[in-house]
Amino acid sequence: MTSDPAAAPHESAHAPDGHRAINSIRPLAIDPLLDDPATRIVVCCGAGGVGKTTTAAALGLRAAERGRKVVVLTIDPARRLAQSMGIDSLDNTPRRVKGVEDRREVSPDGSAEDDGRRAGGELHAMMLDMKRTFDEIVEAHADPDRASAILSNPFYQSLSAGFAGTQEYMAMEKLGQLRSRDEWDLIIVDTPPSRSALDFLDAPKRLGSFLDGKLIRVLLAPAKVGGRAGMKFLNVGMSMMTGALGKLLGGQLLKDVQTFVAAMDSMFGGFRTRADATYKLLQAPGTAFLVVAAPERDALREAAYFVERLAAEDMPLAGLVLNRVHGSGAAQLSAERALAAAENLDEPRIVDQMDGKAVRNSPDTSGSSESPASTGAQDGSPAPDRAVETLTAGLLRLHAERMRLLSRERRTRDRFTALHPEVAVAEVAALPGDVHDLAGLRDIGDRLATVRPELPTTDD
Amino acid sequence: MGRSCPQPPAYAARGLVRLEYVSRLQVVSGKGGTGKTTVAAALALALATEGKRTLLVEVEGRQGIAQLFETEALPYEERKIAVAPGGGEVYALAIDPELALLDYLQMFYKLGGAGRALKKLGAIDFATTIAPGLRDVLLTGKACEAVRRKEKSGRYTYDYVVMDAPPTGRITRFLNVNDEVAGLAKIGPIHNQAQAVMRVLKSPETAVHLVTLLEEMPVQETADGIAELRAAKLPVGRIIVNMVRPELLDFDELELARAVPRTAVAKSLSTAGLGGARRGGNAERLVEPLLAQAEEYAERYTLEHEQRGVLGELGLPLHELPLLAEGMDLAGLYELATELRQQGIS
Question: What DSSP string describes B114-144?
Answer without folding.
Answer: HHHHHHHHTHHHIIIII-HHHHHHHHHHHHH
